[in-house]
Amino acid sequence: MTTMEFGKVAVLMGGRSAEREVSLMSGTGVLKALQSKGVDAHAFDPAEREMGELKREGFARCFIALHGRFGEDGTVQGALELLGIPYTGPGVMASAVAMDKLMTKRIWLAEGLATPAWRQVRSAADTRAAFEALGSPMIVKPVREGSTIGLTKVMGADQCEAAYALAAKQDPMVMCEQFIAGDEVTCPVLGTGESARAMPVIRIVAPEGNYDYQNKYFTDDTQYLVPCGLPEGEEAAIQALVLKAFRTLDCRGWARADVMIDAATRKPWLLEINTSPGMTGHSLVPMSARAAGISYEDLCVQLLATASLDNA
Question: Which positions does UniProt annotate for Mg(2+) 1 binding (predicted)?
């Protein structure tokens, strides 16, 4: 497919989620990349424009560079299904499920895929009870938020109340998760169904092990190792696990799964899957793609070519 055959393309960016700032960075990068390849691409911010304008203005397909709620959670995907405009990334159901970390874990667990123990909590008291059950350290985070926004690594029971309040400010649904000490890695998947393939694994080495919002996007202190330098066979095992996780949720197009490797047992544990990953200068999918010989510009075009509808 030539870039001219894509027709008029909207790069959806910005939106109304807590990740708006990151989405604008992702979208700007994608827009420039597509335009540099001759694609008739235009910026479109759903927070500032009504979705029906996409149809009225003759857009033929959408590249979704939105992150978080109202963009990565099935809502925009549903609107595009109604408008009949093909879009990048997983469909309505897969997007909605993947955005909900609890639902994702329930499905993975039912399919026999390893994910850390968790508790859903509705109060600070619940959070303290979860801390007693799961042990220290424990992660407290919003169920439907990304980019580590609202996340706390709890080391003592006295931190539970503040951790719950911080997470609940982002989402009324809050979860506590057993902390897995060890290597933090991430692995993108490109493609659909049997043609989907796991990309090179990236090992993340953050300052003092703190891979937070600031260290993700706005500093150069975090190390991203690709090749990942893991022991022989571990990278292939993680890629196989991530591919299963991707297919289990019926994802398509692309996604990126985050994994912790237990330092003691070397067992990989699935944390979550991102169905509209970042495409900023610090982002991990472009980094992994580069290691596989795919430039940022070619990656954007390749993803755009996978744009489709659930009910096409």
Answer: 258, 272
